[in-house]
Design a protein that fits this description.
Layout lengths: L16 H12 L1 H7 L3 H4 L4 H10 L1 H13 L2
Length: about 70
């Protein structure tokens, strides 16, 4: 009997945007994250919730965040 379960090669598979942002904040901190990806939601009164709201509406910024997350995995 063969297993039909396949492991995804996508490093973002199963990761929510919230998990990704929290991991990056834990890894870099808000200040360094704001220098790496210079967007206001990381630089001015940063919070996970405000970042998620902005990143969900802004595909280019979300891509930068996802790419940074993948690069440290």
């Amino acid at each position: 009997m063969e297993s039909t379960t396949q492991k995804s090669n996508d490093p973002l598979h199963g990761k929510t945007l919230e998990v990704i942002v929290k991991h990056l904040v834990d890894h870099y901190g808000w200040e360094e994250l704001g220098m790496i990806i210079p967007i206001n939601c990381f630089r001015s009164n940063p919070s996970v919730q405000s970042s998620l709201k902005f990143l969900r509406k802004t595909p280019w910024a979300r891509k930068k965040v996802e790419d940074l997350y993948v690069s440290i995995q």
